[in-house]
Amino acid sequence: MLKVKVLTIFPEIFPGFLGYSLTGKALEEDKWSLTAVNIRDYAFDKHKSVDDTPCGGGAGMIMRPDVLGRAIEANHTTGKIIYMSPKGTPFTQKKAHELSQESELTIICGRFEGIDERVIEAYNIEEISIGDYILTGGEQAAQIMLDAVVRLLPGVLGNEDSLSDESFENYLLEYPQYTRPIEWCGRVVPEVLLSGHHQKIEEWRKDKAIATTTAKRPDLMKKYLDSQNS
Ligand code: SAH
């Protein structure tokens, strides 16, 4: 079972959307656990302050290393410590698979202008970004990352097969999908999908996955071709 601890100044944001659907059911069924720790509980003063002005000047506030350090010391036992950060390594499906193998994760959610750099060094923290844009807080990023990780845990997706063809598994985007009605507004589902011919369907899907990836994500296509040649 994956045990997740999130360090945040807004514990009430959790589980948020992770409490719904597959991830919510998995939480209820103890396929993973989530503890939201309030960083303010580790503040030193009666105002429960967690931030201070940046050394060297500049806009905004920085989360204090002493308060954050105390929160980490009191809650982290083992496993990776991750800081959600726009400066981190971009999060990918590969990383989601990697994290789904862990037994314990401690995730720090930043606010304001982020956290004091010394905390990252002192605890050998891994920085992960969910994309090249700036959010107001790490909570949103942590939930997105956890959503991708939790759905990979054993028994969370009903049908394990539905994983292998998905976009980003094997670098290819998924082929187009259709359901009933067979005809809608003059548009008909591709005939091959109604043929019951499994090999032909598989070939069609592979061709479409390659065509879609070439058109929409040439960068991924290159990775796919490299993976085929190695
Ligand atoms: N001043 C910082 C941005 C702070 S944004 C900078 O320029 O790098 C406030 C918090 O939101 C961050 O501490 C981080 O935890 C979170 N955050 C913002 N954008 C993010 C992203 N793309 N990925 C992951 N976390 C992000």
Quick recap:
This protein has 230 residues and is α/β, with parallel strands linked by helices. Helices cover 35% and strands 19% of the residues.
Q: What does this entry look like structurally?
A:
This protein has eight helices and nine strands. By secondary structure, it is of the alpha/beta class. The protein folds into two domains: 149 residues, Alpha/beta knot (3-Layer(aba) Sandwich), CATH 3.40.1280.10; 65 residues, tRNA(m1g37)methyltransferase, domain 2 (Trp Operon Repressor, Chain A). The strands form three sheets. The chain has a five-stranded parallel β-sheet with strand order 2-1-6-5-7. Helix 1 links the parallel strand 1 and strand 2. Helix 3 crosses helix 5 and helix 7 crosses helix 8. 27% of the residues are buried. Bound molecules: S-adenosyl-L-homocysteine. S-adenosyl-L-homocysteine binds next to strand 5 and helix 5.
List the helices and strands and how they pair.
Blueprint: E1 2-8, H1 21-28, E2 32-38, E3 51-52, E4 62-63, H2 65-75, E5 80-90, H3 93-100, E6 104-109, H4 117-122, E7 126-129, H5 138-150, H6 161-164, E8 183-184, E9 187-188, H7 198-216, H8 218-229
Parallel strand pairs: 1-2, 1-6, 5-6, 5-7
Antiparallel strand pairs: 3-4, 8-9
Helix pairs in contact: 3-5, 7-8
Helix-strand pattern, N to C? EHEEEHEHEHEHHEEHH
CATH homolog superfamily of the largest domain: SPOUT methyltransferase, trefoil knot domain
- Reported by name, the CATH topology of the largest domain is Alpha/beta knot
Please compute the radius of gyration using only Cα atoms. 22 Å
Query: If classified by CATH, what would the architecture of the largest domain be?
Result: 3-Layer(aba) Sandwich
The unique ligands bound to this protein are: S-adenosyl-L-homocysteine
Low-confidence spans: none
Number of H- or I-type helical stretches? 8
Number of strands: 9
- Give average pLDDT, whole number: 97
Strand order of the largest sheet: 2-1-6-5-7
Report the portion of residues in β strands: 15-25%
